[in-house]
């Protein structure tokens, strides 16, 4: 793997399907790199919006589906080129210990300060109908108490 490929991979923008990019622009210029996912998506959208190439033709030339084109176009419209950078994989928030559940946990704690993780996990299971590990409850409570302002966290 060369240096640029390593940088693209580390940034999470290495195009795994670079060989599927057959657009002439990417084969005729050293500037355009089919391994750069953000550049490929940007040029695909630009080809449709500026050059008026049909979506199906542009998507095929850049190695994407029509649905992927529309997703990229919406991301570009909403956030500019930064919107084309793939997000972090995995869950985007809590699955079980959501805000309503944690609000209820806080109510229980306000009524009885002696309640700890194990007792709170049992209350959650009884009221909401799903099991949760006591340590998960304790970590969620800790996160709710932490300041969300980075300056407040550093004491500035």
Automatic annotation (TrEMBL):
<feature type="domain" description="Insertion element IS150 protein InsJ-like helix-turn-helix">
    <location>
        <begin position="41"/>
        <end position="92"/>
    </location>
</feature>
<dbReference type="Pfam" id="PF13518">
    <property type="entry name" value="HTH_28"/>
</dbReference>
<feature type="region of interest" description="Disordered">
    <location>
        <begin position="81"/>
        <end position="100"/>
    </location>
</feature>
<dbReference type="InterPro" id="IPR055247">
    <property type="entry name" value="InsJ-like_HTH"/>
</dbReference>
<protein>
    <submittedName>
        <fullName>Helix-turn-helix domain-containing protein</fullName>
    </submittedName>
</protein>
<dbReference type="InterPro" id="IPR009057">
    <property type="entry name" value="Homeodomain-like_sf"/>
</dbReference>
